[in-house]
Amino acid sequence: MSIINKIINFSIIIISIILTFLSALVQAKDPPQTSIVYTKHNLSGSLSRWPSPSNTVKAIYEPEICIFCHTPHNANPVQPLWNHELSAVQTYKVYWSNTLQSYTEAESQAWNIDGFSKLCLSCHDGTVAVGSVNSRWEEILMNISNCIDSSGKLIPGSGCSGYIGTDLSGGHPISIVYDNSLVSKRNNSNITNSCWLNPPPSNRTSYVKLYPTQNQGGGMGVQCTSCHNPHTNRSLEENNGVKWPPFWQGTSYNDVCFVCHYNDCGESYKIWPY
Q1: What is the pLDDT of residue 84?
Q2: pLDDT given for residue 33 in this prediction
Q3: DSSP string, 158-218
């Protein structure tokens, strides 16, 4: 083999090694698009390796992402390794209609929210500072904006979708048992079949899952996390120009709704109002 050929072969090997190294760096630097890194739940600050992507609610300096909800040590005795201070609010005003079978109108004025929904509301009801976590001696400082006040709590500012408050009457019922008994009561009541319920979804096969609740004697039921995934957003809102609910479990509104609901019940599930 000539000297020139040896040099060429050696150069090819060196270039291959360099490209492999650069590829590894890119993969290490850019997490998958399904990562929480690219969502509004990345609240990390300027010291983070992956700082919050121009979110209106974010820390000033905090380098960690998971810390706002989780910690491996000194966690609140609630799964999964919960780190955020829980809201002291015991009951919430929730949705009610004359076809609802889960609770009475009187009960809807002060309904106990538990399970994973209680965890979500520890930030979203606006009563606890976003940076109030158990694993830090001091509260994580947040950027003050039209969505977060000087105390670090979420507020109902213009263009802010994070604040929900303690009046949940405009949203889907949560912390309710969803079982065959509920389906039977609903479908045997005096309503048209377009408003019927489907049998409870299987947690093994459905992306809409049921989670524990202690209400109504306890059982598996609907919580915030049944329809919303706090770690990623599967909706196609950035691709199709339609604004779906945040952190949606499906790629369209009806993909999620029709897991439990037999039909649209005359409603128009086309756009998220917030």
Answers
A1: 96
A2: 45
A3: TT--S---SEETTS---SEE-SHHHHHHHHTSSS-GGG-BPPPPPTTT-SS--EEE-GGG-
